[in-house]
Structures are given as structure tokens and as C-alpha cells.
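Escalation from tier 1.

The customer reports that the assembly of two entities below gives different C-alpha cells on two consecutive runs. Tier 1 could not reproduce it. I'm attaching the input and our single run for tier 2 to review.
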Amino acid sequence: MEGRMEGTGGLGALATIAYRNIWRNGRRTALCVVAVAIAVFFNIFMQSWIDGMMDSIEEVVRTFETGHVNVVSSGFEAEREYCPVQYPIAEGRSADELADEIEALPGVRAALPRITAYATLFDSTVKHALLWGVRPARELAINHWNLTDRDDGLVAGRFPGEGANECAIGAALARKTGLGIGDKLPLKTVSAQFSDKYWSPTIVGVFEFDYARYDEGVILVSFERLGRILGLGGATQQLFVYAEEAGRSAELRDEVARLLGPGHVVREWADNYWVAVMRQSSFLYVIVFAVFQVVASFLIVNTVLMVIHERIKEIGMMGALGMTRREIVLVFFFEALILSVIGALAGCLLGGLVTKVGSLFPIDTEVFTGGGMKDLPFSGTIFIAFSPANIARGFAFGVAVSAACTILPSLKSAFVEPVEALRR
Amino acid sequence: MRTKYFRAALAALALASAGAAAAAAPSAASLLERVDANEVYASISYEGEMVIEYQGKRYVKTFAASAKGSANSYVEFTNPEDRGTKYLKKEGRLYVYSPDAEEVMLISGHLLKESMMGSDLSYEDTIDNETLSARYVPTLAGEEEAGGRRAWVLDLAAKRRTESYPRQKLWIDAETGDLLRYELYALSGAKLKEYRLIKAEPIGDRRFPVEGEMRDLLRKGSRTVFKMRKVVLDAPIPDSLFSMKSLER
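Tier 1 run:
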């Protein structure tokens, strides 16, 4: 054995011995491999799930809440939760003029004006809703409104025409109110001059964006018509700027802020509260995954300790034949490492397969949330993110944590005295 | 015909709630009857102004208002932003015509609790038909100074559970009978709104509140000042004014 080790340069021979040793007890080996595989699979699956959820939140935020860069006036920002309309951007300047100016900046794909305002409905079932003044044709050239089907989200009829006395409502809102295409939707809103404005648009479309907040509580209307009713005089309450590359958002934010000057709040999508919360939580997930991996590794730790105990005479003989303590430790460490690698590979295979299949089919989040997270900006269905990088990370993480956990028990073999061991 | 004058804008109701009262120590019921009596007119027409201060901004709304009997009133807003918006109160129901809707709409249910034209008054505040005496049980709570005047304090407890404000507190000028101040309370005891008389003028044989301030305490930093000009009392007003046709005209 010693001669072969010397001949092969040591590590290779030790690895070969370790590899042969793991098949001496197939059941125990299988248990170790399964434990590591489950941990690695869990980590890959959960990471892919979280990535899918984050992708969903980020996409919803970019589409509905902020754009890549969001522009509002300081007055609006101070009262944001009330969606005030009396604080337009760059008061006195038209929305189109501003949009043109921002679109002239390099890297800007579009600057879309939007208005949101609260409405009190005459309906006694649903008393309040949010008026969403947009230009559907321009919006849909940039965004998919239904993030699951990746289309305009229209399930019946059409979107309101520019300036028309029309509206489209969410499918859930239509169900609750019992209203449909052709019905009037009488409502009251408050204008920029703080006047009650009564309006009765005709429903011309029903949409399902698969975003509960919008499907249940949004009335989509023409930007022009809503601006006129609210007395905005061609100005806009918010501007949603979309960049050619989302990665340039921070740079674009600074350029837009310089262009508009003081009195405005310009933010990039990554500043959104939920996006920031999710990103900050990533560190916690790593800790959770590490704990899970360590717990799974205890099985390997236990195996190594048992093996050392079982082979105590063998260790004594290895020492008597001239193997150094380092070499004996390495044999046991390699044994644990090989178990970790086989387990991690199995976990990666399973994780890759499941996440790939999961990425093809939407998952209804209501099944998990019970519909109680409607205020969070994520789509009603999410897709698990299939990512080779996640799989590679899962493998490396699984092997590294499991191997690290077996170093200490492997060292135990170094303290076995050959003579003492052979006497047992 | 004896009628109750409606408060403030549509709501001249709010302003007109002051009245002549006796200066001598009166009973709670007689004090409240005096307040009610001051609100009773055959008809009223005037030009009004609402100055609303909210969220650091100031909005001025002007309107022309007429009322006949306790059940009929008509208000047409004349400031540029609201021009064409008309309200009609007819037999306890409140209708609105908005140029944006181009149709007459009935304001009912939860909408009645909404702020009227952005002011500190709700629609509900403007359509009460019955006198305070009919709706509340008064108790004389003492004598206090209000706005530099000696005033009787009345505590009102609602007779019905459906009343918007289960409790009210009134300060009535001991000398002139003016309703100097009142507070409106929720069932929980929380103060919801408060009114303060700014100016009262003699019109005919009555003292008439021509300027008052209402604060909705649920709206932080908000107040609405009502001013009335060219007040004409008890002059004939054609019934046709209080019709759907007037709204749609």
C-alpha cells in the first residue's frame, strides 16, 4: 500500500482507498448520500423559489409601481398613500412635453405619464377603487400587463379609447360588483382643485392582470380623460421611465433628476420598499440554507465517527505499516468528501430537474398564501426560476459545508496510537 | 310656512344653525328650541363662499344657494373649477349634476359620509331635515366663556341609534342666543368635528350667522370657512327651481 502511494504521488492513492472504503457498507453510504442530496435539493429548490418570487416582485414593481425610474413631485411623495392629484410634476408643464424631454435622454426607451386617484363608487358592495389613467397603446408597447400569460391581460372587450368616457375594470371587481361590458360605473373622485368630480364611464373591457391589487380594485381609464376631470390641465402626476437596459436605471435616475431639478423625487425601481426588503432578506436565506446543510452533514459526521471506531484496528495497522497521521486523516476525509460529492451531485440532478419542470408551469401563490398577501406586489402566479448558476452554487455549497463538517471527526483518526489500536 | 334652514353650502345648514336665545337662565329644552327656531325660515337665498384649507393648500369655492321649506334646497357652484356642478336636496334625497358625468346622480348610502366638495362637511351633515329638538335630548351642562362671550353649554344625546353624531355639545350665547360653537362626537366619545361662529349679523328681526368655521378633526390640519353674502330671507322662490330640470339645465 505504501509503495503504491509513493508511486502515485500520495493523494490519488489515498482517494482510491477512500473510494473503495465507502462501498464497504452500501446501506450507510446510501443514507449519507441521500441526506446530502436532500439538503442540496432543498437549497436549490428554495433558492429557485425565492428567485422566482423576487423576479415576480421586481417585474410587478417595474410594470405597475415604479417603471425603471419613477418621477413624482415632492408634494405627492409626502402624501403618497392618498394618491394626491394636486401636486403634478413640473407644475405648468404638459405631460407630453416632459415625456419628450426625458425620452431624448440616451438609453431611455419610453417615458409614460400615469395618474392614479382614489374613487368612491356608488356601488354599495365595492365602495372604493383606484382610478388608473394610462395610455394603453403606448403602455403595451413597453410592458405586458398580464405577467403570467405575458399579454395585455384583456379577457373581454377592449381598453378605453383616448379621451373617451370609457373604462376597463378588473375581473375580480367585475365579479364583486356584478357589472359587465356596457354598464355604467358611477363614481366620485376629487380633483386637483379639491372639487368633487362625479363621473360615470361606460365599461368597455374587463382585464385580468393576475395581480390581485389591480384585478380587485383598479378602474383603468384614459389618461387624457382622467387628467381633464381632475383638472390637471395636461400635466401628469407621475412619470414612469423605462430604460433600454434595466441595469442602467441608477444612472438614468440621476440624469432624470438633473433634468427636472428640485421639487421632484426621482427613484429607481430597486429603491422600492418590497424589492429592498426581499434583497436584504437574501442574507437570511443563506443562513437558513447553511443550517439545513449542516444538519444534513451530521449524518456524514456520524458515519465518519462510526467508521473510525469500527476500523480502529485497521487504523493501527495502517500506522504500523508506515502511513503518516496526515495520510490516515486524509483517507477518512476523502471518504466523507466523496460521499458529499455523490450526494451533492444527486441533489443537483434532482434540484435541476424539479426547478426546470417548475419553471415551465405557473404556481398559484394563493395556494400558499391563502390570499392574505394581496398587498404585496407580486403576481398571482409565480414561476420557479431555473438557473444553472443556482445548481452550481448548490453543489459547491453542499460539498463545501459537508466537507467542512467532516474535518474535525476525520482528525480523530490522527490521534489513534497504532500499538494501542492493534491491542484492541 | 315655517321651515328649517339647511346648513352651509348646500349646507348653509351649518351656518344657519345659530339663533336667537334668551339671556336669562333657561331650561335645556327651551335653549335648544331657540336654536331650532332661529333655523326656521320660509325660504332663503344667498351667495356663498367656502374657503378650504387642507394639506397646506387653500381652495376657494363660490356658489349660489336657495332653500325652501325643510326639504328643498338647490346649490350651484360658480367658481371656474366647479362651474356647472349642482346639488338638489328634495324630500330628503340628495342629487348631483356634474358636467363630467353629464347626468343626474343620486348621492346615497356610504357616499353621504364623504366630504362635500372637499370641505370639512359631509353630505350627511347637509341633509338633516329634522330639528335638533326632535333628534336629541338636551342637558344643560353649565355656563362657560366661548370666544369672549358668556355662553350656556348644552349636551345633546341622540334619541336614535342611527344618528350620525350620537352626541353633540353646543355653546349658546347667553345674551344674543347665537350658536357660538358646537362639537360633534362619535359613539366612542371621540370628537369628530367642531364648528365656530366667526360672524353673525342682524337680518330683519333675527341674528344670522354669516361666517363660520368647520373643522373635521379626522382630517389633519383641515378647516373650512363658510361665508354668506346677499342673504335674502322669506322671499318667494319658484318651486320649479327645486326640480330635476333645474339640475340638468
